[in-house]
Amino acid sequence: MRPQAPPSVPAPPRRILLADADAFYVAVARLADPEGAGRARLLLVGGSAEGRGVVTSASYEARAYGVHSAMPMARALRLCPKAMAVPVPWEMCALKSREIRRVLERFAPVVEQASSDEFYMDLGGTETLYRGEPLAHTARRIRGAVLTETGLPVSIGGGTSRLVAKLAAGVAKPGPERPGDGVHVVEPGGEAAFMRRFALGDLPGIGPKSAERLRRLGLRTVDDVLPYDPRGLATRLGEREAGWLYRCVRGIDDTPVEPRTEPKSISRDGTFARDLDAEEDLAREL
User: How far apart are CA 150 and CA 100, in angstroms?
Assistant: First the structure.
């Protein structure tokens, strides 16, 4: 009689966190100039209005006036004329970004820096190390350590995937219309219910044009997509997009958290002295 193989043990749920610095460039500008920007309730950080600069970030109080990132600075100052506008303190931003990462690396075995102010952490395998404490408790300790050691507040979202952690971090963020307290963790099994609060345009990977195209098909929210099976979605969107959207609205995302040792891309941006509309002008600059 052949011995039976032992039953397979299901893998434990993934433990993914995303730490997202709150109004990062504004917070750093205030640290860099405590007597100036540090005292300004209405603060805009970015390029100069005279040089057709744009807003890199705005304080939450300034955002209440309709100001947002990538807006021309001149327009932002018209909307919020009492705001102080300051340049981005790039060197200090790079320093603070490194400081945040160093704190996170003490708590998580794997940290992936997604941008200057966003950091994914995979805490898989740390359950015994943290004596089984809930992931939300660990996240609050991490948040406290970052604030104490860098002077910067971060919001932390958590869940079983990068997608859910990203959206949860947005829910965690405090703001005029958000009561977030800085940490929001979606427990395993709660992904589907959590995702139902979102419009499709809120999901990472769905930009304004894609959201409009989906809207024309009658798909505006996650709830609008959930009744469809993959085949039904494929008839409307094509197999590739349908498969991705079917998984996305259910909070399914197997993308790993990986520390990046080499940059995947480099970029440079600037603002022209005048708008470029002619194809030959665009081709020349490109």
Answer: 7
